[in-house]
Specification:
Blueprint lengths: L2 E3 L6 E3 L1 E4 L12 H13 L4 E3 L8 H10 L8 E6 L1 E5 L5 E2 L4 E4 L2 E5 L3 H15 L4 E7 L5 H17 L3 E8 L3 H9 L4 E5 L13 H8 L2 E5 L15 E2 L2 E2 L2 H16 L4 H7 L7 E7 L3 H12 L4 H9 L15
Helix pairs in contact: 1-2, 1-9, 3-4, 5-6, 8-9
């Protein structure tokens, strides 16, 4: 699988990234065996970039990912995790489904973008992952903590990068304004942009992506299926984790119809679309089983002809000026 440099850093990421929220029991349980099989399938498909976070399953995702990667050549894969939520142990009081994860509620999340909190978060993640370094650390959803993230968390990440504990620094969000501010005001290496650059939502193109290209900041695009609507558009499908409106569902169905007329599955077009912009280095897909990983890899490898992109623009399903991938990419 093709790998691309992460901005100006020495880190190189595979075009397809393994999103490990699913193996942290996102919404429904996954067994240890299923989690290990999913990571093994990703490796067999050529995936060499794996993303996790303390938030995912109250640390379960990090522990499972660390277990699954153990024994594989450390210099051959890239691992990212996130800072901003510390996990404090508490007496178990039921499950964590209110936060989206089918795990015992034996920790509570605490927002902390202080320098001390960031260093503790990285140390805790290294312990759960059983690693001695992290390739990319993302500031995780600092929507309501922007000033502390800029003044305290980011400088501490710079210190950790200088110490060799981190290979690169990024910010991960599902909005574009604050990441654009970080690109302008800091020396971050990457943005993990969730849901804001897809066949249905090109808000990332207004400011963030051009700015990232100008500053040589890499963009990893998550949420290319917009939480499900572009994977399988049908009544009840979700867009940004809420039931999609009739207007969005209709548009997704028209996208599916157009793709089908060119012999391209909608999932394949959704996965390939972000690579039309030169700032995009990887697409991150949340997967929870070997079958889902293998499908994502096959879809990304599916040929998407130039004629499809032209047709989508002609039908008004994509803006006329949106950049699209080359046929051979």
């Amino acid at each position: 699988m093709t790998r691309h440099p992460l901005g100006r850093t020495a880190v190189r990421v595979s075009e397809l990234a393994f999103g490990a929220a699913g193996i942290g029991n996102l919404f429904t349980p996954v067994s240890d065996e299923q989690a290990a099989q999913a990571v093994a399938a990703a490796w067999a498909c050529g995936v060499r970039y794996f993303d996790t976070a303390p938030h995912y399953g109250l640390g379960l995702s990090e522990r499972r990912l660390g277990d699954a990667l153990r024994g594989l050549p450390r210099n051959e894969y890239v691992l990212s995790t996130k800072v901003g939520r510390l996990l404090d142990p508490v007496p178990t009081t039921g499950d964590d489904l209110a936060n989206g994860f089918a795990v015992p509620a034996d920790h509570r999340r605490r927002w902390d973008f202080s320098a001390e909190g960031v260093r503790r978060s990285v140390e805790d993640s290294l312990n759960r992952l059983d690693l001695d370094r992290i390739d990319i650390a993302y500031l995780h959803d600092p929507d309501d903590h922007a000033e502390q993230a800029l003044a305290e968390a980011y400088p501490e990440l710079e210190r950790l990068r200088a110490e060799g504990v981190l290979g690169a620094i990024g910010i991960g969000m599902n909005q574009t304004g604050l990441p654009a501010r970080f690109i302008r005001d800091t020396d971050i290496d990457a943005v993990l942009l969730a849901g804001r650059y897809s066949l249905l939502d090109q808000r990332g193109l207004v400011e963030l992506l051009p700015l990232a290209e100008q500053r040589q900041v890499a963009v990893v695009v998550g949420g290319v299926f917009n939480s499900g609507l572009l994977a399988d558009p049908k009544p009840g499908a979700t867009f940004d984790y809420r039931t999609a409106s009739e207007e969005l569902l209709g548009r997704a169905l028209r996208l599916k119809e157009a793709c089908g007329q060119h012999g391209v599955p909608l999932r394949a077009a959704a996965l390939r679309f972000p690579f039309g912009h030169p700032a995009v280095t990887s697409v991150l897909v949340g997967t929870r089983s070997a079958a889902e990983v293998e499908d994502a890899a096959a879809m990304l490898d599916h040929r998407v002809p130039d004629a499809l992109w032209a047709d989508l623009k002609e039908r008004g399903l994509l803006p006329a000026d949106v950049p699209t991938p080359d046929e051979e990419s």
